[in-house]
Amino acid sequence: MKINYDFIQKHLGLQGIEVTYTNVNNGTFEIHAVCMHNFTVCPRCKRITQQVHDSRCQPY
Question: What residue numbers bound the domain in which 30 lies?
């Protein structure tokens, strides 16, 4: 079954991400996604950068 990830993004109001995978387990709906932008804000200096050194799963 093909899942319409665009519907999930719009329905949940998630913008700027690309949904790559979803999973439902024990009543928990997990969404796996990656950022669509090629930049981020450095957590140390708060400047915009294109270098991402680490990424992690985060609950939303």
Answer: 5-49
Say how many domains are in the chain: 1
Task: Give the residue among 53, 43, 1 at the shortest CA–CA distance from 22.
Answer: 1
Residues 44 and 54: beta-carbon distance below 8 Å? no
Reported pTM: 0.53
* Cα torsion 59, 9, 48, 50: sign: positive
What is the pLDDT of the chain when averaged over all its residues? 77
**Residue 15 falls inside a structural domain:** yes
- Output the furthest CA–CA distance in the chain (Å, rounded): 44
Identify the three-state secondary structure at position 15: coil
- Give pLDDT tens digits for 44-59: 888 998 887 777 777 6
